[in-house]
Amino acid sequence: MKISIVVTQEEHFKFAQEICDTIESSALLRGTGIAKRTPEYIQKKMANGDAMIAIADGKFAGFCYIESWQHGKFVAHSGLIVHPDYRSHGLAKKIKAKVFDYSLKRFPDAKIFGITTGLAVMKINSELGYKPVPFSELTTDPSFWAGCKTCTNFPILQSKENKMCLCTGMLYDPKEKQKTPPRHPFNEAVLSRLKKIKQALFLNKIIAFFV
User: Rounded to two decimals, what is the model's pTM?
Assistant: First the structure.
């Protein structure tokens, strides 16, 4: 199977709706929150060259887009998704690596960050050199956090004044001296346990609020 990963152009507009549907259905299947995006928003990213798409025999196989915040001081990768027909082949990791390198070229001084509940994404980020950080080290741009409004966990984020949620914040600072292997090796068992603790704490607080 030959899959090419390229910077998006207008010719990829036709995949925008399918990308949005795949992102949403994947989130529902995992039972996780998600910041929804419209096909129009995805097409805008495509037109500006702020995204990469994986194509297999003319079909959409995977996707990820870039967002910059605070005048390019921070960069985030969002909407990382692989079509169900092309999963279990390491494609997500390949797309993320391509977007990561592309971001470093376009924004060489920017801190690259992300928030996620997915252990698979955490593992990929860790292998690229990201480290888990508190939300206070991420962008303060209200536009970024406003993008979480369509996530089912947004009330939790609001209650914590954008300082904590079920997502884990991860950051790559190009000014830090990187090592191989990464300085912050991924420990799935530890992060999974922390995720469960965080979920339990928030659940207890929600129950206490209504009692």
Answer: 0.79
